[in-house]
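[#protein-structures] MJ: dropping APOP1 protein here for a structure pass
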Amino acid sequence: PPAHSHSDWIGPPDKHSNLRPVIFYVPPDESALERRLREARQEAQASNQRFWARHNRAFRQEKEEFIYSRLKAKGLEMRDESGQKGTLNAEEMADFYKDFLSKNLKKHLQYNRDWYKRNFRITFLMGQVALVRALRWLRWRKKNVKQ
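AK: finished. structure tokens for APOP1 protein:
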């Protein structure tokens, strides 16, 4: 982001996780509480990136292995004579998707628990930051009204 920017910047989707990375704006007068909030958001983003990159890599690999094994069982190759990649029908792929989701259920449940914990912490910190800013504004307003 340019030096004059005063907001977060969102990048293009990551090729492994498919999540859009965020470059967080750091104000020069950032308080300790605001820093904790930003760091919590950065940690949540990094955790999400790691989880979805691993998940998507496993998904692609297992999908390729599944397709290869099903095509091989049918006596077919991964590519036909024209070089086109072999495919399976929707019902066969539904079997893979169901098995993959069932096999990874515990990982998804743990991810969701962690996600909720992180977001609750972020929301709590956001509330604290908003309260501090509101009180600071009220003090400023009260001081300026007296003058």
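MJ: nice. The beta strands are 9-10, 22-23.
AK: one more thing. The first helix runs from residue 32 to 73.
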